[in-house]
Every structure is written in C-alpha cells, then in structure tokens.
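Question thread 4412

I'm putting together a teaching handout and wanted feedback from people who do this every day. The idea is simple: show students a protein as raw sequence, then show them the structure tokens that encode its fold, then repeat with a second protein so they can compare. Below is the first pair exactly as I plan to print it.
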Amino acid sequence: MNQSDSERVKRVLDGMGAQWTDNENEANIIGILACSVRQKAIDKVYSKIALWNKRKSTHNLITFISGCVLPSDKEKFLKLFDIVFAMRELPQLPQMLSQYGITTPAGLERDNLNPKEEISFFWQVKPKYNSSFEAFIPIQNGCDKFCSFCAVPYTRGREVSRPSEEIIDEVRNLINKGYKSITLLGQNVNSYGLDKKGAEITFAELLQEIGKLGEASSHTFWVYFTSPHPRDMGRDVIEVIAQYDCLAKQIHLPIQSGDDKVLIKMNRKHSVKKYRETVTAIRELIPQATLFTDIIVGFSGETEEQFQNTRKALKEFEYNMAYIAMYSKRPGAASYSWPDDVDLKIKKERLALLSDDLAQVSGAYNSSMLNKVFPVLVRDTDRKSGYLSSQTEGKITVRFASDDQSLIGQIVNVKITSASNFSVEGELVKVSELV
C-alpha cells in the first residue's frame, strides 16, 4: 500500500516541477510514508529524521511524513517533521509546501471536506508507476474489523470503496500498456463495496469484470490482491479466480493464530474451522494455487498449548509462505492496555520454530516443482552473479542463469532443476510472451 501511495506522491511532486533523485544527500524535499503497525518501522522513522534534521544546518531541506501514522505518533512527528499530513490529503501537498512553516496539528483548511471525500480526491491523482511491468491499484481504504492488535482503523480510518469504474479503467490502461503483474490493494479487499450498501458491485463481481478484460486481451498478465480477511472470503471469490486465467492462482489469507481462543482475543471474527472451510474450497476449486499467510507469535496471554495449535495449523494448511511477526503493542489498538506477558526470549523461540516448520512445508512444495516447466515473470538481477530473479504465477521465487537484462519485465519459460526451502533454480527454456 505504501508503495502504491508513493507513486501518487511522486506524481504530485512532479507536477510541481520537482525532479527525483536517487541520492538522498542531494534532496531538498524528502519524506517518509510510514507504517505504525509495528514499532520497528517507527523506530526507523525516528532514526531517519534525526539525521535529516542535523543536515538542515548546512542544507536547504524540507521533510514530510504521511502513510499509516497513529495519532500518538503524529503528535511526536509534528515536532520533528516540517509537514505531517494524512495520505488522503495528498492533493493539498503543493499548498502545504508553499505555506511551509505554518502547518498545525489540525492541518490546513480542507474546504470542509470529510475523510471520504478526501480519499476520493486522492484516488484521482494519477500515479507515476515505479515499474514498467508491475503496478499496484488501491481499490479500498481503511478497515472496519478492529482486530485488537491492529492500528489500521486508527491510521487509515473506516472502510471506503473506490468507484469500480475508476478501478476497471486503471486496470484496462495497464493492460493496454503491457503490464504483466497488477495487484489490487486494500486493508480488507474482500469487503469491497459493502460500504456502498448495494450501490457498488461486490469484490467477486469486480474480479469478474477484470477477468473479462483478461479474456479480451492478447497478452498474458496476472492479477493479485491483498489483503483479504478470512471472515469475508466467500466461495464466490474463489469460483471467479478459478474461472479466469488472468486472475493469479495465489492467495494471501492471514490466519494470525491457529488457536480459537487467541483468535477471539484478537477479535478476528473467524474460527479455525471457518478458515479451514475456506482453504478446503481453495484446494478444491484451484488445486494449483499457492497459499500465503500472516501469523503473530507471542500475542498477549498466548500459552504454549495455543502456540502449538498454530504450529499444527501451519503444517495442516501447508503454506508456501508465512509472514511471521513477534507481537508488539501499538498505541491505539485495543490490546495496548493488555499485558505483553510473553517473554521476548520465548517469542523469539516461537518465531524460530514456526520458521522451521514453514521451511519444511514450503520446501516440500518446491521439491515437487523439479523437472517441470513454469512461466515466470523476470523481476530483476539476482544476488547470485550471472543470474536473473523471477517469480512464478504463485509467487515462488525462481533464479536462472542469464545475463540478458532485456528479459526483465518479460514472462519466460523456466525448467526447474533444483529446489530449496524458499526458492528454486532453473534453466531458461525459451523467451515467450505466452500470448
């Protein structure tokens, strides 16, 4: 989401005549799109702004911060950054810069616009895409779930769906430009349209309209989405993904915990049984799909037995990837006032155990890819000299020997020759747009 936001920030600054530089020391305007979800990310913000404020004694520099910022963090940032604004206020950034020095905690006057109107103006800012083959499209902003560990409703606000016409037009434009990977973004994408009370199509219907664009297109591309919520993940969405080739057979479905009591405490509003039913439908209708998830270890009060239930869930659902995080308290979230009573050493041990479990199930899948040919999207040069890095439709990382950088951004065929727990290696079969 922050990467998508940054593309719109770049467009606004370009419109002011600003020129991008990759050298931070050359910049006269520099900012951060923050994420208050984890303390580690916010710690990095404080480290950066301390360096930049030191530079101001010898350098003409204006600093700003936006993105996901908690009210408590925003209060502190107002004393450190020159400009602090909500992402929905991005269209007003030129005005803020021109009036730099008078920004207040209340922000500038917004002509009495409410947050829903402001986010609509934000979505109308055309992004300056960072890539010529991969793009991110926001379809929804905010969240109404109020998970007890999460700060998103307090940083992004309540759910607001972007007009489907705008989304479909942006997808169509990217298809016409030959983009290969398109990701639909939202804090809770599969609740898309629910805030419009029937005046907007559902998420499944939105995917279907995009699928029709794929059917009419002459080139191959893959459409992803993140993140869905298990409670709202209906069979209708899975059926649509199965129906259209352009809808990528990769699903990110955050479980957070494999224990029902912990899920209740997290206010996740889904049980392990409900989650299992959704995964069963995915395996039935899209057997080739890869499955990714998010897991929190060491949540307030998590017992050893509850953690072991999460280990069982990880092995049962055979994830290809899991983003595992140690629980950290976030101001504003409901659990902030609860005891953070799982010792840090235990959290680290649990994270290591889950990572080992993930390596086993992910490695087994990767081994099953041996001697098979997969279309992959070449994304960049690999850390291994003389190799390129790519991903399958299911987002399995594949490296193959080649120094032909013109392949970056193309879909090629690769035969898998070796496999490790989290990546595979192969050899180029032939360059193909797979039309």
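The second pair follows. I'd like the answer to focus on this one:
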Amino acid sequence: MLRREISAVLSSELSDPRLSSMISVTEVDCSPDLGRARVFVSVLGGEEDKASALAALKSAAGFVHRSLRSRVRLRSVPSLDFRLDESIEAGMDLIDKIRRNVPQPGFSDQP
C-alpha cells in the first residue's frame, strides 16, 4: 500500500525539475513499529541523474510524508528514507554477461 501511494505522490504531486519521469518505487521496507520506512527507488539515467533525483527525493521526504497522511489509513505514517535500488541495473548487467558468454541455441562454431 505504501509503495503504491508513494508512487502516486511522486508522479502527481511533485514538480521538482531534478526528478525525471522515469522513477519507480521498487520496494518499501518498514521497521516493525512503522516508525521508519526505507523507500527504494529505481532511476533511469546516468549516475548524475540518479544522484540528482535522490537529492530531490530526500529534500521532498517531508512533503511526501505529509501527503501520505491524507492518503493512507494508518495510525502513524513512517518517516521516509529514500535510497537508490541498483538491483535492476545489476540484473541487466548479469543478463548481458550471460548472453555474451553462453552460446545461443541454433548457432554453432562447428561447420
């Protein structure tokens, strides 16, 4: 629920120019007492784009937190800690390495 609502706030209520349209909330990991939540985001772009987007998200964390209060029905909304999720890029790199090193079916080096 939090992942969906944070995504909605980011896409519809934030207008920071440092945020591209290619930001995805991939996971929200809450502490057991719901006091804190780590929000993992994936940003499409170079390292500079990622750093800029993360800085924008960290500065907007209070705004997103306040927006969530009216959107979710929880006793208390956790404070948000935005972090980059590099798992998508790591997975794509791994797939690329596999494709380069594993022979494709139907292709053979032998005549």
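Top answer:
Good format. For the second protein you could add a caption like this: The beta strands are 23-30, 36-43, 79-84. The chain has one domain: 2-101.
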